Amino acid sequence: MSSFAQFLKRHTLWVGFLAVLAPLLVMLGMQFTWLSRLEQVSALAQKAAHTNYLEAVGTEVQFYYRSTGERALNIPASLFTQGRLQEAGLFWKKKPVEGVRRLFLVDFTRERFGNYYAFDADHGALLSYPASDEAVAIIVACTPLQLLRYYNRPLVSPGLRVDERDPEYRIILNPITDDTSRVVGVAGMILDEDYFRGTLLPSIVKKALPVFFPGGGAGDLAVTVRNAAGEAVLATGRATDAPDAATTRFPFVFGDWTVSLRSPGTTPEQWARANFAVNTTLSLLLAVALMGGILLALRAADRAVRLSEMKSDFVSNVSHELRTPLASIRVFAELLRLGRTREPEKVQEYGEIIESESRRLSRLIDNILDFSRIESGRKEYRFVDTDLRDVVSATLKTFETHLRHSGFRIASEGLDTPLPPVRVDPDALAQALHNLLDNAVKYSGPERVIAVRLARDDGWAVLSIIDRGIGIPRGEQAKIFDRFHRVGSTLVHEVKGSGLGLSIVRHIVETHGGRIVVESEPGKGSTFSIRLPLRELAGERAGEQPGEAPQAAG
Ligand code: ADP
């Protein structure tokens, strides 16, 4: 394997992490940059669209009043110079003017401060103007033009003039000049603010919106018109607290009023930003999920590798375990067959050895068969009310020869104290005890004392197998009950084993509703305790016949 491939293998997690995270970060970074640019460009474009719209509204207003003024106030100078002002009344009567509170004429040719005539729409005639606030407003508005007339000066720039000093009386004036460009009088109108606010402005505002914001974009916009005092005199669209997107002043007559736009709805940039936030969150979640997946896959692969290593160890260990008793059996059987010894004690001893080794062999085969039954969920139990002392004594008896040959001494405790019968499968329990005793023998080292203690602890029957052997490190104590698991120390590896014994013990004990507990200290020995519940089993006993019924457990 190349060193690069080795590097990849060793750092799979980090490589995976970088492979996922790096493109993700690059993608998010690019998205963020594009988004910022888009926001800038789009904000500028939007601001321009808003300003254009507002200016168009202003221009429309200006256009309306200019064209109205130019049409209505264009009175021939001859009416002033020839004293025919009454004809102006007829002139106006024929062309009614919308949005005007009053039309008036001021004649500068007669008196110093001129005569004031107002058009009475009801009578269709010019009437002499009553002294009123309106009359004062007209006098004030006309004074500069009248002064020109008084000082006999020509009007330099003719055309419509506006006087809006008094917000109540917004006046449009058209100075009337003779051939020498001298002012002879004024035609004027006082505007009707209600008309402007209630009719003209809403229609202009409404008409211009779809022109400047096509495609439904106007739906979200709110237009507000404020007077000189800042009061809203017109508000369209949804009420909103959004700040003004753009504001402008009317260019003509209502020059002290402002019109502004707000966008309460979600702008495209806001959509994009929200989208970005969602993208980022989802991508990060995805990255976390992916990393989690990689981690799990690595763990699973690691576990699979370990399991397969354990299995191959298992095969070699089991072959060895099978071979050892077989070899003993063959040797002692051979000795007997060849008649090498005639001494009855020796013959008996060889026979015992052959028997004990065959038992060991069948225990091993039992274990393997049981393991396969447990794995496939086919192991069956046959529960009967049992005196645990009987099971322990019988098991110790069958084990005796093996122990004696191995030089072990067994100290048993509590076998004389009566214990209530417990509902167990005696064969399964004997097998569990065998496995524990087997381990005590295998892992005892030079210390050749094993204690078997049967006791009662509250509602539990406790069967303990105590050795003074090599012990089990704390970190391994939970794992030794897993199938194929063997402690990795050299001391253990000198002893052959299948790694199945304790997993079978645990299965048997748990199927009995009990627990297997280990207390151990390396170098000092181990105590394995099978705890079986007394009380619950007693309760169960009350409900059913001392059972013959086979019970399957997985
Ligand atoms: P094995 O066939 O290897 O003995 P077991 O499942 O019976 O398999 O035991 C699992 C492992 O637990 C053993 O390999 C050994 O490392 C450890 N072990 C079990 N019993 C003892 C004991 N009495 N003392 C020390 N270690 C033990």
Distance between the termini: 44 Å
Low-confidence stretches: 536-554
**Major sheet description:** 6 strands, antiparallel
Q: What shape does the CA trace take?
A: rod-shaped
**Percent of residues in beta strands:** 15-25%
Helix count equals 13
The Cα radius of gyration reads 55 Å
Mean pLDDT: 84
Structural class determined from secondary elements: alpha+beta
Biggest β-sheet: strands ordered side by side in the sheet: 3-2-1-6-5-4
Compute the number of strand runs.
Answer: 19
How is the quaternary structure best described? single chain
Ligands bound, unique: adenosine-5'-diphosphate
Helicity, as a percent range: 40-55%
Task: Give an overview of the whole structure.
The chain has a 6-stranded antiparallel sheet with strand order 3-2-1-6-5-4, with helices on both faces. A 5-stranded mixed sheet has the order 13-15-16-18-17. The chain has a 4-stranded antiparallel sheet with strand order 8-7-10-9, with helices on one face. Mean pLDDT is 84; it is low at 536-554. The chain is built from 13 helices and 19 strands. The chain has 554 residues and is α+β, with helices and mostly antiparallel strands. A hairpin with a 2-residue loop joins strand 15 (449-457) and strand 16 (460-467). Helix 2 runs antiparallel to helix 7 (268-337). The structure holds adenosine-5'-diphosphate. Adenosine-5'-diphosphate binds at residues 435, 439-440, 442-443, 467, 469-472, 480, 485-487, 492, 497-503, 526.
